[in-house]
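User: These chains co-purify. Model them together.
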Amino acid sequence: MADRQGLAGALARIEQVKSRRRGRFYLRDERITLSHGSGGKATHNLIEGLFAQAFANPVLDPLDDAAVCPLDGVDARLAFTTDSYVVSPLFFPGGDIGELAVYGTVNDLAVAGATPRFLAAAFILEEGFPIADLRRIVHSMGQAAEAAGVVIATGDTKVVERGKADGLYINTTGVGVVRSDAAVSVAGARPGDRVLVSGRIAEHGIAVMLARDDLAIETDVASDTAPLNGLAAALLDRLGADVHCLKDPTRGGVATACNEIALQSGVAIALVESAVPVRPDVRGACELLGIDPLHIANEGKLLAVVAHQRAEEALEVMRAHPAGTHAALVGDVLEEPDGMVFVRTGIGGRRVLDMLVGDALPRIC
Amino acid sequence: MADRQGLAGALARIEQVKSRRRGRFYLRDERITLSHGSGGKATHNLIEGLFAQAFANPVLDPLDDAAVCPLDGVDARLAFTTDSYVVSPLFFPGGDIGELAVYGTVNDLAVAGATPRFLAAAFILEEGFPIADLRRIVHSMGQAAEAAGVVIATGDTKVVERGKADGLYINTTGVGVVRSDAAVSVAGARPGDRVLVSGRIAEHGIAVMLARDDLAIETDVASDTAPLNGLAAALLDRLGADVHCLKDPTRGGVATACNEIALQSGVAIALVESAVPVRPDVRGACELLGIDPLHIANEGKLLAVVAHQRAEEALEVMRAHPAGTHAALVGDVLEEPDGMVFVRTGIGGRRVLDMLVGDALPRIC
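Assistant: Joint model of the two components:
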């Protein structure tokens, strides 16, 4: 009974916070640039300045990873999410576009507190694309779907002329059922909460960059592409409505994800730089690129914001799960400055951590 | 009670027919060609020869326009469908890619006997694309969603470099709730049934071709792009389980749609050429192109297969609806030759009507 009230209260609070949200994004550009696809600031300007206005409706919440859709006469909430995948190259250490397209969408459902169920898969193929490569990618999708426990229920194929695509693009759209005990939202973080990350960050972005040969360094960094629904379910099983927010920090990295949470929840987030797990060779590659690992895409990491008193327990749950071996407590939620994210550095200083601006790593997913 | 038994019987029959279905498609190509995107024979080879095998599961039925997904513990069946839109040009007489992307997906839900509810919209944008054009397209989507009574619930934006797309591509994925009184399927046609089409065919394909300036003729042909959910609902309201199959004859036209029905239902379909409504100028343009209007795409026409004794009533319902003013009875379902479609011509002859082979009109939707 207390649990039910806790859940209802949490859901009501999220609605209240969302309705207070202020528009901070404006679309002033005349042409699309690569940064509109970065997942960072320009993407938000495009979404809030155009799509959110044209499609305005109570279900659309462009900054949550999945929409939660009520169905008349049905006692369940659906989670619904879509992503197009344009990663280049199509095959990279640790994965390929097919696996990425399945796990990416599964993860967007998982962070909505949903059990992923059905995927739709749509292909835009470039004339001349080798069927052998398509076969490899499609088989990889089939295996990923099986690993994540989802069914690819429907699909579509279009072909465009040579030079009008780049091999192939895949769209996957997912439907899941929101767990009745879940009250997670990007607007759900509260002052006092603690922030966890499920493992070492920035590996997907660096692996893809290395596969492009843009960096003349040798490492064995592989993409972290993985399904997160098992890990998210383990957290919700144990902590229920004390999990306030889940997010997979993909394009724009942990920094952009934290900024979205801070903005939508009307809170500040303070990250402790030294607590964020990063492989040394990944850190080295980031330094070569001149990009903060916090701005680099992950495809198999979970960011969780949980009630202060349950944080150690959450860490324990994460570390006990194969997808969370390197989990760490990385920050705290503060009351103000509302909408801001900053990083506490080793020497006692702090710096503001903005969303990704521009796009140093286009077509990362 | 009798109705309920009729519905259950119809659903059971569809499952039985589906399970008998034989694979007639093989993928032997080494590279993707434009014909793999035609919606015709090569597309079926790709789907059955690759996707259907890699994704094999009981829900996936690659030749139905939408998958029907059961949800544990929920007393409703979801319809789920996806389509990517790559039409060229983006704006054409009678519509644009945005409107097309909304109505196309709404229609795939409608022909599954579902009430369309939620859409996801994903954009792949080419660097340099004018924001003014994007704004026009997005507003057109918003208006189309309102007209069709669906909510755009979630979305995604990716950007690719100049020369890696053709302005923009849109994917829309739709979720609807299958009407409890509907038992329609591409496998649902039975010998003795009659075939209706809701109006004049081939207008979308011809309008897009004319917009490309590929034909040096002047007409006022406009795309028929329109939502079909109202018309489909009117038919189901009146005829219930006596509507055996609904289909929107898009890529590959009425001919390909009829071939899918014949193959999946294990029946033959005989169309009467003179009964199929075609505008004279559309027929003229088809003759110039050397393509049968039955092979040309429609985006606002409904093909219905209904029980023999309800056919006149179905025609009456269609004609009374604004989307079906020019509806006509165009053919009959026969027992054999199983899987074959033919056309009865004016002079008492008959010719076999195959699926679209090759793709004379690429990127029509």
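The mean pLDDT of chain A is 92.
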